[in-house]
Design brief:
Chain lengths: 151, 223
């Protein structure tokens, strides 16, 4: 299985390491030179690509056409959405996962915009914290449906 | 028409002023309120400070009943997103976006937004602002492949037949307007100076037509 990750920050690089350890084929697209230097230290060279992930030509070079999953995890919601739209409307990637940075933008991360799964980290974290404060003697065993349901 | 313009740079502010002067109800959105100074003291439209893809900002700008949205910020990714929101979430009938990377045209087409390249856009706007144009763009069809234009016949063309402007697959003159009344003339009808002709033009042939008209002295500014 081939996974294309746009955004090589903490989330992107950590995800890449996990997936590589599990035997996935991974490519991380990043264009900030300081971040690239770290990526080249942490990941195998063939798993890193220097380029602007909002450009179709970059995505094509990074092998989007043969990727099974596209993950957009930059720190910029506009970029994550633009990447998801390109992934769906131009390259027809089977599964697209995008990170929501600002909860105010969550309403835009819909299947119509090409996003199959939206991960709203601030919202998830805030809810977990609120839960830990109020429900001392209850424990979440598992989260279902993107964290909206709990057992 | 109620029109929302997102981005108050050179392009956005010129567009806003032009549309407001023509009596349209214009709302301009920009995150930097200093940019609104470009609109000048006589601007009659509204301004809203905020991000163009913020739901609350768009609702305040009246996007639910807007007839047109122009996404003309200097950030192409933002333009794409604004165009997408206007078209797909709020079903605004007329949405245009400023495009910098021609390779993205296919993406705009996929979300149902007609594409105007920055160069075409500027030429059209500048022409409208500089001159009472002898050649006026009336409509753009499909994804901009065909443009419908009107031109005023210059004196140098008087006596030519209506069909002399016809170029197969490029320029098709359709309607003759003389003294305010319009008709579809026979090909051999003789043109008079001051006639208005409406033509459908393949957009890539528009510059040639413009050049022909300029050569005949038809592009001089009025008054």
């Amino acid at each position: 299985m081939r996974v294309l990750i746009v955004g090589g920050g903490k989330v992107g690089s950590h995800l890449a390491s996990l997936l590589l350890a599990d035997g996935y084929e991974v490519c991380v697209v990043e264009n900030r030179s300081s971040v690239l230097a770290r990526l080249y230290r942490e990941l195998p060279t063939e798993a890193v690509m220097d380029g602007d992930g909002t450009r179709m030509s970059t995505l094509e070079q990074a092998g989007i056409r043969s990727s099974d999953v596209l993950v957009a995890v930059t720190g910029d919601d506009e970029v994550n959405l633009a990447v998801a739209m390109m992934g769906r409307f131009i390259f027809n990637v089977p599964r697209i996962i995008a990170r929501v940075n600002n909860p105010r933008n969550a309403w835009l991360f819909t299947p119509e915009a090409g996003v199959d799964v939206a991960l709203n980290q601030s919202d998830l974290l805030a809810k977990l914290i609120a839960e830990e404060m109020s429900l001392g003697d209850m424990m979440t065993l598992v989260r279902l449906r993107r964290g909206n349901w709990r057992l | 028409m109620h029109i929302i313009i997102v981005g108050c740079g050179r392009t956005g502010s010129l567009l806003a002023r032009t549309l407001a002067e023509r009596g349209h109800q214009v709302v301009v959105v920009d995150p930097n309120p200093d940019q609104f100074l470009r609109l000048g003291p006589n601007f009659r439209g509204r301004t809203i400070t905020g991000l163009g893809f913020d739901r609350d900002v768009l609702l305040r700008a009246g996007i639910e009943h807007a007839q047109g949205v122009a996404a003309v910020t200097s950030d192409e990714t933002a333009n794409l997103l604004i165009a997408f929101i206007a078209r797909r979430h709020f079903h605004v009938p007329n949405v245009v976006a400023r495009l910098f990377e021609p390779e993205r045209a296919a993406l705009y087409q996929a979300i149902g937004v007609p594409v105007v390249t920055a160069a075409e856009w500027r030429v059209h706007r500048l022409e409208q602002l500089l001159c009472q144009p002898a050649l006026n763009v009336v409509d753009t069809l499909g994804n901009g492949e065909v443009t419908v234009v009107e031109l005023r016949v210059p004196a140098a063309w008087a006596g030519q037949p209506f069909s002399f402007l016809f170029i197969p697959e490029k320029v098709a003159p359709t309607v003759l307007i003389r003294g305010g009344s319009a008709r579809i003339p026979a090909p051999d009808v003789t043109l008079e100076a001051g006639d208005i002709i409406r033509l459908s033009v393949a957009t890539d042939a528009l510059e040639d037509l413009r050049a022909r008209l300029a050569q005949a002295g038809g592009m001089e500014c009025a008054s």
